Amino acid sequence: MAFFALLGFCLREESSLCQSAEIQPQLLQIKRLILIDGSFEPISQYSIEKDRVRYFSTDRYTWEELPYSLIDWAATEQYARRATEEASSRMDEALKEASEAKKDRDARTPLISPELRLPSEGVFLLDVYQGKAGLSRLTQNDADLKKNTGSNILRSIFNPVAGSKQTVELKGLHARIQSHVPAPAIFFPVSSPDVEADRNTAAIEDRFRIVRCEKKKENRIAVFYSIAITGKVKQQAQYIDIAIEPLSQYWAKITPAAPLKKGEYALVELDSKGTMNLSVWDFGVNPAAPMNPVIEMNDSERKEPALIQKPQKSAVPQMQ
After folding, report:
1. Domain ranges in the chain?
2. pTM, entire model
3. I want to staple 267 with a disulfide (CB 3.0 to 4.6 A). Which of 52, 161, 184, 281 is the partner?
4. Per residue in 159-174, pLDDT tens?
């Protein structure tokens, strides 16, 4: 109010300094001149010249004038202060939302080394090749259930044949991705809107394992199933102890508890009964292997399914 009182004093005294000067900049960001009749003029700027107020109308996009006495300066200043406070509040809220959005982006794409950030989707293996760290995408490889008995596995359970066996095999002798270090880190998404709700309740430590694969002819065996004469199914695999570290609410880091020997491996997911999903993430450990295909920061490949999204094959025997 002191500013406008000073203006009124200048007008009353007809000070030549006040009469000739255009008061700029304004103390408040006046965007609306409120008149004594309650109406208002939206403006972008104004100046006081003697007993007139000259302003640029944002309605008509032209310079106009009004008598100084027709403007309710107290209401104008009150509106300007309220508008300034509201603008400041909106700015604070926008900054808060931007900060929260950045935190969420950082959680979805965490920094795992000074120059390496995880993409928002997929399963990745962190490798070091010739001293340089890089991320390689692990894709789900569908294993096949091989039978060494002529009957179907379900039929074998109802009509058990002593000593019947089955194996879960991956095609080829080597996985596409080979780690050049004995303790690779695998980054796995732990939250997805497509995941079945009941799977979110299981502890991730109980659902994932690394298995060492055995070579057989031209394939790799991940799991053996043996069926006793009583029909009881036993699942056998060379499980590797792992450590799981949560990176954020969206990511987990899976590493072997001890260095892996040269060979072929797979990250597998188990259901609540311990039955393995036939879609696995296979990889190998071979320091002499060629360089893996690595992803770039703007990698935009198709989504990699998180957790079990592919239907399990019905031929998998259930644990008893």
Report:
1. 2-106, 110-285
2. 0.61
3. 281
4. 444 556 778 888 889 9
19 three-state secondary structure: helix
3-state SS assignment for residue 12? helix
Residue 103's region, left for phi above 0, alpha for psi from -120 to 50, else beta, is alpha
Two tokens at 243? 């450590």
Q: 87-113 in b/e burial notation, b at 16+ Cβ within 10 A? A: eeeeeeeeeeeeeeeeeeeeebbbebe
Residues forming a β-bridge with 220: 170, 215
Q: Radius of gyration over alpha carbons of the chain, in Å?
A: 36
Nearest to 127 by CA among 187, 188, 180, 182: 180
120, 122, 123, 124: CA torsion to nearest 10: -60
- Please compute, for residue 61, the number of CA atoms within 13 A of its CA located in the half-sphere on the CB side: 0
